[in-house]
Amino acid sequence: MSTTKWVIDPTHSEIGFKVKHMMFTNVSGKFSKFDATIEAEDSNLENSKMEFTGAIDSITTGNADRDTHLLSADFFDAPQFPEIKFSATSVTKINEGEYVLVGDLTLHGITKSVELAAEYGGLMKDPWGNTKMALALEGKINRKDWGLNWNSALETGGVLVSEEVRLNIELQFLQQ
After folding, report:
1. 45 burial via Cβ count (<10 Å: 0-12, 13-18, 19+)
2. Does the pLDDT of residue 124 top 80, yes or no?
3. Which helix (H) or strand (E) segment is 93 a member of?
4. What is the pLDDT of residues 85-96, one digit of tens each?
5. How far apart are CA 168 and CA 26, in angstroms?
6. Minimal CA–CA distance to 120: which of 141, 139, 140, 101?
7. Which of 29-33, 44-48, 152-156 has the highest mean pLDDT?
């Protein structure tokens, strides 16, 4: 079998997340600078190698003050830990177009295994003759598992920032 390499199309991809704020609303954010590759035997994702890196200083939530706080030592400590990395360790097909992706997530100097639901959108030729592949990933992590512990208690009970972070990732890859 031949190995096919895929590189991310950053203009058609988004690495997003949501966190509960004050225990009742969601704050969304994303990383605007990232890179990802897939090496697969033809279109068989089960035997693929997937790698992702993102620049922590590219985080954006639509609020400059919040973004500055997220880059500080209270959260990501971007000067000391400038990258987020993910490397798949297994890809398991559940049903047609549905996979479970397990991999090592390195964030804030800590590496832990995470599991993501993956939806394979298939292959398609774009108007310029390039072959594209689409993947949508979803999952949840606990930010405290990576040492992102800052929080503030609310007078009414609860905390300002949820520990749970929901990941919502839309990826489009270009065949090389």
Report:
1. buried
2. yes
3. strand 83-95
4. 999 999 999 999
5. 13
6. 101
7. 29-33
